[in-house]
Amino acid sequence: MPIFGHISYYRPGDVLENRLALSRAGLHRPTRAGVSGSELEGADSIILADQYEDDDFREEDIIYSGSGGRDPRTGKQVTNQEMTGRNVMLRRSLETELPVRVFRKVPTETGSGYRYEGLYQVVNAVYEAGKSGFLVWKFFLVPFLES
Description:
By secondary structure, the chain is mainly beta. The chain has helices spanning 19-24, 86-96; strands at residues 15-16, 35-38, 42-48, 56-57, 62-65, 100-108, 111-129, 135-143.
């Protein structure tokens, strides 16, 4: 069952050592997938780990590429993405306007870790050609304004 918003005492800027630590803390449940949540309720968290060439983490917003269509050996986009699975979760987040926790893979003294960037909201989704020429879902996120 997805939990939306901050969890426990974790706040933006906190760094956890790996995906297993994120999962154990309940911050991002899957240890491999970049999107956590349910198709019914939406995404509760995402990870930016430089896996998709069309991801763009900017100061004021994020363009997060949908999942699918990548060659598992090379990581290259080799086919169009479809509106299934994790992409449905992100589209549902656009509809519900619930916050999404965002984590980003960052270098640390011991290698790399995952920094909590804060809560974001999905505000748009487009299906367009990505850098590789294949159609990809691009989800636009902005900082979530807590009331």
